[in-house]
């Protein structure tokens, strides 16, 4: 064999084309969402066939009696889903670089993780792009679609609850709607902020050109459409009758729709772990020189703590869902009491994930509002260290409170005062965001822009939601409130009133940064006021409804509660209308009237605002040197937040030789 | 807390109005009026009422928590609203606000006050649970309860199944009925179990909630203080007809209860003989055998319905 004198390297200087490669292939021959769909379909058919063979449905008897004993459709469906996911990823080209490296092919990726010819155009949003900004936009559109779909289910539920005796849906359809709404929201909204805003903004906020693991990040996004579609496909299989919590004997006895629940939830758990892991390593390892922990923006602190919760809690969910699938399909007995297992095992596994999950939903909201208010108040963030300690404290304590979901379930009674104590304690760091907010508002110059309105709405709603949580943490009061509409109102106030209002605040605030266009302000104010009033009108009466004795997930209730239920239902339709207004505003502003906004419209000191909007392909021309914190408003002669073009020698001296090579790439 | 806010404003040397004092003076009457209304006006009507000692203790708990929560919420809302009104941006003013990064005294005060409030609530809640008079505040304590009432309780077993509650009275021969009749004044021990999936026995007016797990005996205590009717709802999603899984019961005088119990025991004796013997948990696989026995004995009943709605004896 001749010895190659020219090494076969992919990277030319400045990310040029490797030797011997041709011009880019036409769009339909490059892996993208259309090949992914093809792969998913082929994968599903293969998996289904494999499952049929395993269960003996193809004619030849099954060699596996335990599997043959399960519902004849379980294995074909589960294996179908599994191979569909593999096919989806293969069709996207996720495995291309791994397999290519194994085969010794050149790697068409430059040093910053971006394919050389993929820095512009609409097509990259439908591909397995390794640019964190593209992944952020993909997540944004995905999350809006998932939220609106799940919201439509909620409209259906409220329609059913208009009358306690006249039923719009059959009990079968109603229970499917309840399960789909809850599971879709809880499962997919875990990444509603970390996905779009975390992935997009964290590298910009810490002064990095990239994330640590672009492939892992892109993979975490591309698993979400599959999780969404698999969950929706459950409706074709008869749905699942156990809500988003999936309590054990019922979920084992259910028909095949439950497989879609377990698989989709487990798949989303994998996505959550990947997304969190990437953020943690990026923030720890990719901060620019001068970006000390004490200068980290509040939003990045929130993303870090959320990411830690994701990485530590979601594996328990994946494990629990796997055990559930095995109980359903392979006659294991993890959760069957008569066979030596325990239904309590499922409850504890689920809520060990489930409680950190709700803080995964709450913390990003805290981060967004804490990030927005200093900008809109033109004042530093009050008590920065308390804010950071609060987020870390919430994250840490969130692993010690899960049994408050199980107070009446027959757990060891000694545990209950303990978990009451820890749950009460977690409200201390949760309250810190109010200290920070009130301190920031003190003697400020408050501008009532649309992001600020949504942030204020978040604070108001979360106050009600958080205080009702204190009521629930008290074991005697929880005896009446558990499993009732009181809990429903509590978590809708914290999750929708907190997280989703914060999402809107973040979107109105950062859309100029992400897409270079501004959302229409007038429509935004209309959306805010209708959404805020309708939201409170929908969920505030539900506290009373729950305290009056109406349990969750029911379609019949006491007739004297019809007035309150009707009020809530009609308000929920208005709330749905406000979300429609939002979608109209979003489409109108980003597609039809692209009102360019490329500067720093909020005059923010954030590092992400110091580059163009939208940012160039590599975020920063050079790695910046951070000179001061982002909240130094009102400080006389405050240094700028960063030096974007540090003189030569500053960088290499600060971060060492190899990093300087990276910076020049 | 508000007082030190006032001191801070003065201490900063600004010759402006004392905002901290103003906020305090607006907050104080709001908090006092809210607390007075909550304790005296709404208090006696707070859920879940006073029909049993568990319900009364829960109502008292909710009252105490409301009275603590209202001033806290009022403070955040008053201070927030004040700030948004007084310190809103004025047209033409493009200056930044004052560079206040923090205030150790305010921070320490806030952390201390919130910690004291929640620790008090945790302690108070534990006291409400553990004090013998409350005997666990009506919540299910599992098979080995630690907070028990004084005296010998009336044992009522609640059997939950998809999608009906039935009740067995072991001290009266173990007959099974779909009527829940309870005496006033006597401690009642609910032994809650399930035959199939997880349900939850929620007797709203009694302030009792205990999850029904298959193969597990979940014990909850209460003592009724007033007669009247009670609503029982299933509080844990248990399948298709969870929404329709509710029942009514009643609390009656001791004499009425005794006569009803003895009468029912006699009238259902033949059926009680073929039921599985009373136990704190049942193997669900026994259920198909019961159905066979019932069909043989000519008693109607489909999945979950041992008895038609018109029970033999109406007290």
What does this entry show, briefly?
The complex is a heterodimer of chains A (665) and B (315). Chain A is mostly helical. Chain A is built from 21 helices and two strands.
What this model shows, in words?
The complex is a heterodimer of chains A (665) and B (315). With 665 residues, chain A is mainly α. Chain A folds into three domains: 27-102, no CATH class; 123-592, Cytochrome C Oxidase, Chain A; 621-664, no CATH class. Chain A has helices at residues 33-55, 65-68, 74-92, 96-102, 132-160, 171-188, 194-206, 214-233, 248-253, 257-285, 298-329, 343-377, 384-397, 415-441, 450-473, 475-481, 485-515, 521-547, 562-592, 650-655, 657-664; strands at 625-626, 642-643. Chain A has a two-stranded antiparallel sheet. In chain A, helix 13 runs antiparallel to helix 14 (415-441) and helix 15 (450-473) packs antiparallel against helix 17. Mean pLDDT of chain A is 90; it is low at 12-17. With 315 residues, chain B is of the alpha+beta class. Chain B has two domains: 2-86 and 104-131, no CATH class; 154-297, Immunoglobulin-like. Chain B is 40% helix and 19% strand. Chain B has seven helices and ten strands. Chain B has helices at residues 2-11, 19-42, 53-86, 104-130, 254-267, 269-274, 286-297, and strands spanning 154-161, 164-169, 175-177, 180-183, 187-194, 199-203, 208-212, 218-223, 228-234, 246-252. Chain B has a five-stranded mixed beta sheet with strand order 3-2-1-5-8. In chain B, helix 1 (2-11) runs antiparallel to helix 2 (19-42) and helix 3 (53-86) packs antiparallel against helix 4 (104-130). The longest helix of chain B is centred in the N-terminal third of the chain and has 34 residues, at 53-86. Residues 1-13 and 299-315 of chain B have low confidence and may be disordered. At the A-B interface, helix 6, helix 9, helix 12, helix 13 and helix 14 of A face helix 3, helix 4, strand 7 and strand 9 of B.
